[in-house]
Inverse folding.
């Protein structure tokens, strides 16, 4: 039996299988068999393999034969069940992206038009045309294959595609800041944190700001914002991860349930906060790049000098409606709550 993926095709996919036919007195037949099918889905400069292992059982009716009983035409229906593996179970791709389709059990059916042509008493040529429909038991997707064409579609429930895209665009630094975690070391486009979901004293959690990917050297794991949410939740459920990120970002959409777990900072984020006049410095250069002239920034903004876990930083600050400060710099965006600050003289840039 074949399912439309020919060896050497554009996707490099193929299939093979074996079947056993048992004929009835009226010339109909029972068919039992198994099939292995591999399709490679293109992704950037590589391919993601999707493999299916299916077993079949069905009944075929003889609908046509010639007078010499050499050619027989059958039409039948089969039940299918099996297992599908996406990328052989590996979720994180080479570029840090995460696959949200998982290995799953599959089920469905097939309609087949089968032709047998006997060239000798015990030798026959076989050809068939089949329409196969499969459902994935654990992720709600549906696959339809027929002839030399195969297509698939999957839908997520509870969030629209635009909402998921908005969640995906949230910077990792913003996500971590909203959960109370700040970088302790900066190096070019990389920020280093103490791992936010486990205890450690030496930072081993890296965020690549340009690529928006993270990697935990302590655990040897990494990925995108969804996999990071999964580490907080200890869950591989994509919808739970997306809703957790949306809740952290204060995104509200009707019908969402509030995540069961939203971690709180276990220690102060800002320490020894000092407010100083905002003079010409890399901070004013940063604001100028954002289109804000120094005449406005010097009147409405200040410079905040603060410590995080013993290391000094500085950023632009401006008052918010709650009496605290909005904190901005090239590397950080956050909020300092309405607590007592020390008003002092300007300091030099920390080394």
């Amino acid at each position: 039996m074949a399912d439309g993926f020919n060896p050497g095709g554009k996707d490099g996919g193929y299939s093979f299988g074996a079947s056993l036919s048992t004929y009835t007195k009226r010339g109909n037949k029972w068919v039992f068999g198994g099939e292995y099918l591999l399709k490679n889905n293109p992704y950037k400069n590589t391919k993601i393999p999707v493999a299916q292992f299916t077993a079949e059982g069905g009944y075929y009716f003889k609908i046509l034969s010639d007078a010499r009983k050499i050619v027989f035409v059958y039409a039948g229906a089969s039940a299918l069940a099996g297992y599908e593996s996406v990328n052989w179970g590996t979720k994180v791709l080479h570029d840090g992206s995460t696959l949200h389709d998982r290995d799953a059990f599959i089920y469905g059916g097939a309609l087949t038009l089968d032709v047998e042509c006997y060239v000798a008493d015990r030798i026959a040529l076989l050809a068939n045309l089949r329409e196969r429909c499969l459902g994935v038991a654990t992720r709600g997707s549906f696959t339809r294959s027929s002839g030399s064409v195969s297509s698939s579609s999957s839908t997520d429930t509870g969030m629209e595609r635009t909402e998921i895209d908005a969640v995906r665009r949230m910077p990792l630094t913003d996500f971590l800041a909203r959960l109370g975690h700040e970088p302790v070391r900066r190096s070019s486009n990389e920020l280093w944190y103490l791992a936010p979901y486990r205890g450690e004293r030496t930072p081993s959690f890296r965020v690549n700001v340009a690529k928006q990917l993270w990697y935990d050297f302590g655990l040897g794991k990494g990925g995108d914002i969804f996999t990071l949410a999964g580490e907080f939740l200890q869950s591989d459920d994509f919808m739970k991860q997306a809703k957790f990120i949306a809740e952290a970002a204060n995104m509200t959409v009707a019908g969402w349930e509030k995540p069961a777990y939203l971690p709180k900072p276990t220690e102060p984020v800002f320490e020894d906060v000092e407010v100083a006049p905002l003079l010409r410095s890399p901070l004013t250069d940063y604001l100028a790049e954002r289109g804000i002239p120094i005449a406005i920034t010097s009147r409405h903004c200040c410079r905040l000098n603060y410590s995080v876990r013993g290391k000094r930083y500085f950023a632009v600050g401006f008052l918010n409606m709650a009496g605290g400060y909005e904190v901005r710099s090239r590397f950080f965006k956050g909020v300092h709550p309405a607590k007592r600050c020390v008003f002092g003289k300007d300091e030099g840039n920390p080394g």
